[in-house]
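I am writing to request your help with a piece of structural work I have in hand. Thank you for your consideration; the sequence and its tokens are set out here:
=====
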Amino acid sequence: MRRAVPWLIALVGVATDTSQCPYNDPLPSVCTAFADVVLVVDASTSIAHAHDNITAVMRAYVDSYWLDEVQGARMAIVQYSVSATVLSRLAANRSALLESIERRGPSENSTCISCGLEAAGEILRTGNRTGAAPLLVLISDGVQVIKGGPGKARDVAAGLKERGIVITTNSLGEDIAATMEAIASSPSSTFANDLTTVFQLLSIIPETVSSSCTQVFFACWLSGYCDEPLSVIVHGRGLVNSTDLLCRIGGIVGSASLIDNATLVCNSSAPGLETLSNGALSVDVQVAARYSRAQTPRTPPTTAATFARS
């Protein structure tokens, strides 16, 4: 069982008192999370007929992230067939990423998914920024039959997930679906997409990006009196696995209860406000996801949230 270390997602200010805590603002059209993303794409001959459409998919993924070296996402691009080719290492230059897509070479025989996964893992091992979410997006239309077969692909993926890398899979065909589901992060119902056409993949890219784009936008408190534990509702997106989510209220870490992929409750087991802030009127609220020991916490900006006192 891996030892996990919190990776900071966002510091959120808690808003005015409301029992319902509504949040109706539209989500950003692109993922603005602090993340390092590797796109791993099948380039075998079986998918050569869809070359232009796969190019469109790759471009759409690039355009789904706010790219920024310091605060936003960076992307790398890998294609694989009999072996893997790194088209671009982690970068935040949209034009350079799109040029690398246009330069990709012709298709070759065989499908070595594990080769693509290994190349992506090495990119993230050497280039993942401290605190940035390590994400991998895999596209394939065929089963690996060389270099260890599908078992090798599953084993490599297991090692990547053990390191805290979140893997989203897109399978184009029934033959590959079971293997891709095993490769994907848990829950597979969120991170494994079983598709029949590239056009389907194009249509679900916003949804798949949002699922792994863990962000917090707004929070409000349900109780915040000195003699009560503190309960906070948090709104965001990509809040998928409650076992990997933590709340830190006034510096004290507690668990989180997931309502849906966009809402969680910071459990009210934390002490009351007076204990947390030594009698002050404000307290910080943070939401974090647990990733592997290879990750270290990112230092956040300081934001205070004001609560009522009894």
The two ends are 44 Å apart (CA to CA).
